[in-house]
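tool=predict chain=A
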Amino acid sequence: MFYCQINDFHKLRLLHIFDAEELYELVNVNRIYLRQWMPWLDSTNNVADIESFIKSTLQQFANNEGFAAAICENERIIGIIGLNRIDRDNRIGYIGYWLAASYQGKGIMTNSCQMLINYAFKTLDLNRLVITCATENQRSRAIPLRLGFTHEGISRNAEWLCDRFVDHDIYSLLASDK
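tool=predict ok
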């Protein structure tokens, strides 16, 4: 089971099916903001879509291929973080995250990422972590830089985002960097 206490108010915990309704409401409240950066948003239209997502991440966790965790403040979900994919052969984890707009700028995502980094290197014995984010997403790009990741370059037209392709900045952190 994945669980990390960040501080007195914040924790990371594995998503569960019972989170579907709360998570769907959070997505809906933040839909306009999230649509700028999250290509999955237009295909997330009801609680059943969130349930399907959670089931797939629980299966991923069971297969040791990645996971999604709720970022909670006082037991309330305020965002998601996880290893979207784990390449076991090469010991690489791919980090993904989002946070409700009203909780940004408070260090919550930086602290959440730091906990995930510690878990990935110490518990999962990964060697390399990767974060990619749209080049225009300044807040998301600030996280890996703040945490000491190396900017490796730009992947052009890396993602179809609603109505256009966007470039991604690629950042990495090695276990030996820590």
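The mean pLDDT is 95. The beta strands are 3-5, 10-14, 67-73, 76-87, 92-99, 128-134, 150-161, 164-174.
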